[in-house]
Design a protein that fits this description.
The structure holds 2 protein chains of 2 kinds. By secondary structure, chain A is an alpha/beta fold. Chain A is built from 9 helices and 9 strands. Chain A has a 5-stranded parallel sheet, sandwiched between helices. Chain A has a two-stranded antiparallel sheet with strand order 1-9. A two-stranded antiparallel ribbon of chain A has the order 5-6. By secondary structure, chain B is of the alpha/beta class. In chain B, helix 2 packs across helix 8, helix 4 packs parallel to helix 6 and helix 9 crosses helix 13. Helix content of chain B is 39%, strand content 18%. Chain B has 2 domains: 156 residues, Rossmann fold (3-Layer(aba) Sandwich), CATH 3.40.50; 130 residues, 3-Layer(aba) Sandwich (Rossmann fold). The chains are: A alpha/beta, B alpha/beta.
C-alpha cells in the first residue's frame, strides 16, 4: 500500500459520508440504536475496506483475502453499510436492518455470509480467532493480513489479553489491531466504568508496535496501515481516537452507547450529510 | 542425581509410577496427523498429561502450546479451523469445557467447525480434587448443537475414538481417561462405529448402559450378578451424542429394565440421554441412574472415589438387584 498522498482522499471522504448517510437511514426507522458509534467509526471502515484490505466482493471466500474481524459485533449499521457499498451485497438490503427475519441483525452473525469472518457478539472472542488464523497463515505460508476492529470497552475482557500476549510472544506481524477508541461503553464514559489507560503502554509491553492516530482522519489511518504492513516481527496496534457522532454537527460528541434518535434529529442529520455529498 | 531430577520432571499427578505409561491417544493422534496434514495440536500447558508430548517433539511446526489460557485456545482453534486446519485442543475435562463454554458455542459449534476438544481427567477420577473434577462436562457439551460427544471405555478404543472424531465433520468433545498403571501387554486397538453402542456382554434380565471407566465397573457388576442367577447385559455407549437410539430401544424390549452408569453427575449426562430416548418412545420401565448423585466430590485415588461415591461395580450391582425386584 502506498502512503496517503497517493490516495484520492477526497474520494474516500465522499465514501465515508455515504456510509454515514446509510447509518442515519438504517437506524432512524427504529428511533434508537447504534448511530453514534457508526458515525464515529465511518472513517476506520472506509480506510480499511476501501483503501487497505485486499478483498474481492465477487469472491468473498477467496482464500488469500485479508480478513477483517469486527469484534464489536453490535456496531453493525456502519458494518453493513460498508459491506453494501463495497459490493458484497445490494445496498437495498440495508433497509431490512434489524427487521424480523433479516440476516442484518443487531449483532452481526455469519449466517449473513462469509464476509462476517466470525460471530463475535460475545465480546472479547474475535481477537483469539484472528490470532488462530494468523498463526495458521504463518504455518501455511499465506500472505493474507488479519485486521481486528476492537471496541475500547471490550478490552476489559480478559480473553483479549490472553490473545494479545500470545500474538506478541509469537511476533504475529500479519496481525493488526485497531481499537475504535470512542471512550464510551454501555454504561457511559470509560473512565467512569473502568479506565484501561495507559493503553498504549500496555500494548507496547505486550509486544505490539503501537501507533496513536486520529481515527477520523482517513489519511492518517491509511498511513498507519502502511506502517503496520511494513512492521516485521511484531503485531501492530493502532489506537484510533474517534469522536462519537462524527460528521453530524448535532450529534458530534454526544457520548451515548444507545442513542434515542427521533425523526426530526434524523431528518436534520440526513439533510446535513446529503448537502455534504452534493458539495 | 541426574536420574532423580528426570524422575521429578516426569511427575504429572496422573502417572505416579515414574515409569512411562502407554500413550494410546497420543500415539493415535500422531498416526492420524501423519496421514492427514490438516491436523494440528494445541495445548494449554498440559502437554504430557494430555499425551501430546510426542506430537510436540515429532511434529513441532504443527504443535502450539498457547499458554494457560483455555478460552483463548478455543478461539485460536476456531481461527485455525477457518483456515483449513483440524485443531485438536487439549486440557483437562474441567478446564476445556466449563471454563470456555461460551467460546466453544460461538467459535466452534455455531460455525460447525472441525474443532476437536480433548479432555482428560473425566468425572471424579482424579486426586486433584473438586477444582479438577468434571461432573458437568457431558451435560454441557451434549446440549450444544452440532457437538458430538465421545467417551471411549479404555485405551484400547482411543485410536478408534480419534477416527470417529475425524469422521464427524464438525466439533467433537472427546472425554478420555489415561491408564493409571503400566500394562504388561501392548494395547490391542479395537474399532468403534459412529453412533453405535457396543454390546460388551449379552444378558436377558437387565441391561447396564455405561460409558468410560464405568464400562469396566458394569462388567464387574454383571459378573457379581451372574453368581446370583441374574443375567445382566452390558452396553458400552462410547458415543453419548448422537446416542444409539435403536440399541437402547432393543435393550429395553429385550430385558425390560435398564441401569445407566456414568462417571458424571446423574443430571444431564448418559443417564439423562438414555431416559430421554425411552421417554420420547413412550416406554416406562424399571430404570436407575448410577452416577454422582448431584453433589460435589473430593480428590483421592480412583478406586477409593468410585467406592465412596457409589460408582463401583458393587453399587451398579445393587441398582440391578433393585430393578429385578421392581420387575416382578
Amino acid at each position: 500500500m502506498s502512503a496517503s498522498a497517493n490516495h484520492n482522499l477526497r474520494e474516500y471522504e465522499q465514501i465515508a459520508t455515504r456510509l454515514r448517510l446509510h447509518v442515519v437511514n438504517m437506524v432512524a426507522p427504529s428511533g434508537q440504536g447504534y448511530v453514534q458509534q457508526g458515525l464515529g467509526a465511518a472513517d476506520i471502515f472506509t480506510a480499511l475496506y476501501f483503501g487497505e484490505a485486499n478483498m474481492d466482493p465477487a469472491n468473498p471466500t477467496w482464500e488469500d483475502r485479508d480478513r477483517i474481524f469486527l469484534t464489536t459485533a453490535h456496531n453493525t449499521a456502519i458494518f453493513y453499510a460498508t459491506l453494501g457499498e463495497r459490493g458484497f451485497f445490494d445496498t437495498n438490503l440495508l433497509t431490512t436492518y434489524v427487521q424480523d427475519g433479516s440476516a442484518l441483525e443487531i449483532n452481526s452473525c455469519e449466517r449473513m455470509g462469509p464476509f462476517v469472518e466470525a460471530t463475535c457478539g460475545s465480546l472479547g472472542q474475535g481477537l483469539s480467532v484472528a490470532v488462530g488464523c494468523a498463526m495458521a497463515a504463518k504455518r501455511q505460508g499465506r500472505s493474507s493480513r488479519y485486521y481486528v476492529i476492537l471496541g475500547d470497552g471490550e478490552m476489559q475482557e480478559g480473553q483479549i489479553w490472553e490473545a494479545a500476549m500470545l500474538a506478541g510472544a509469537r511476533g504475529l506481524d500479519n496481525l493488526c489491531l485497531i481499537v475504535d477508541y470512542n471512550f464510551v461503553q454501555s454504561e457511559g464514559p470509560m473512565d467512569l466504568v473502568m479506565s484501561i489507560e495507559p493503553l498504549n503502554d500496555k500494548m507496547q509491553s505486550f509486544g505490539f508496535d503501537v501507533q496513536d492516530v486520529d481515527g477520523n482522519d482517513i489519511g492518517a489511518l491509511l498511513d498507519a496501515f502502511s506502517v503496520a504492513r511494513e512492521t516485521k516481527g511484531k503485531p501492530s496496534f493502532i489506537k484510533a481516537n474517534t469522536l462519537m457522532g462524527k460528521g453530524v454537527s448535532s450529534l458530534e460528541g454526544l457520548m451515548f452507547h444507545q442513542l434515542r434518535f427521533p425523526k426530526e434529529v434524523a431528518d436534520s442529520a440526513r439533510a446535513e450529510l446529503e448537502a455534504k455529498l452534493a458539495s | 542425581m541426574s536420574e532423580t531430577l528426570s524422575k521429578l520432571e516426569a511427575a504429572d499427578f496422573i502417572n505416579r509410577t515414574f515409569k512411562p505409561l502407554p500413550r494410546s491417544y497420543g500415539d493415535a493422534l500422531i498416526d492420524a496427523a501423519l496421514k492427514n496434514a490438516r491436523i494440528v495440536c494445541l495445548s494449554a500447558d498440559l502437554t504430557p498429561p494430555t499425551e501430546t508430548d510426542r506430537f510436540r517433539d515429532e511434529l513441532p511446526d504443527r504443535f502450539h502450546n498457547v499458554g494457560i489460557a483455555e478460552a483463548n485456545m478455543i478461539g485460536i482453534a476456531g481461527g485455525m479451523a477457518r483456515s483449513g486446519e483440524i485443531p485438536f485442543v487439549h486440557s483437562f475435562c474441567a478446564f476445556v469445557t466449563k471454563r470456555c463454554l461460551d467460546q466453544i458455542t460461538m467459535q466452534a459449534a455455531y460455525p460447525n467447525l472441525p474443532v476437536k476438544i480433548v479432555g482428560f481427567l473425566p468425572g471424579v477420577a482424579t486426586i486433584l480434587g473438586v477444582s479438577h473434577q468434571a461432573i458437568e462436562d457431558v451435560a454441557l457439551m451434549r446440549s450444544v448443537p452440532n457437538m458430538m460427544v465421545l467417551e471411549p471405555s479404555g485405551p484400547q478404543y482411543h485410536a478408534a475414538a480419534v477416527q470417529l472424531a475425524l469422521e464427524h465433520d464438525g466439533p467433537v468433545y472427546l472425554r478420555m481417561k489415561r491408564p493409571e498403571k503400566i500394562t504388561e501387554d501392548p494395547i490391542t486397538q479395537l474399532p468403534l462405529a459412529y453412533g453405535k453402542g457396543v454390546v460388551q456382554r449379552a444378558g436377558n434380565d437387565v441391561t447396564i448402559i455405561a460409558a468410560g471407566l464405568e464400562v469396566v465397573e458394569a462388567l464387574g457388576a454383571a459378573e457379581l450378578l451372574s453368581h446370583e442367577g441374574i443375567d445382566a447385559a452390558v452396553v458400552d455407549m462410547h458415543t453419548i451424542k448422537p446416542i444409539d437410539r435403536d440399541l437402547i430401544l432393543e435393550r429395553a424390549s429385550a430385558t425390560g429394565a435398564i441401569v445407566t452408569a456414568e462417571n458424571h453427575n446423574v443430571i444431564g449426562g448418559l443417564g439423562s440421554a438414555v431416559a430421554e430416548v425411552l421417554a420420547d418412545a413412550g416406554i416406562g420401565l424399571p430404570f436407575k441412574r448410577v452416577g454422582v448423585q448431584d453433589h460435589f466430590c473430593e480428590g483421592g485415588s480412583t478406586d477409593y472415589l468410585l467406592k465412596k461415591f457409589g460408582l463401583d461395580s458393587s453399587a451398579i450391582a445393587i441398582a440391578c438387584r433393585e430393578l429385578m425386584k421392581r420387575k416382578t
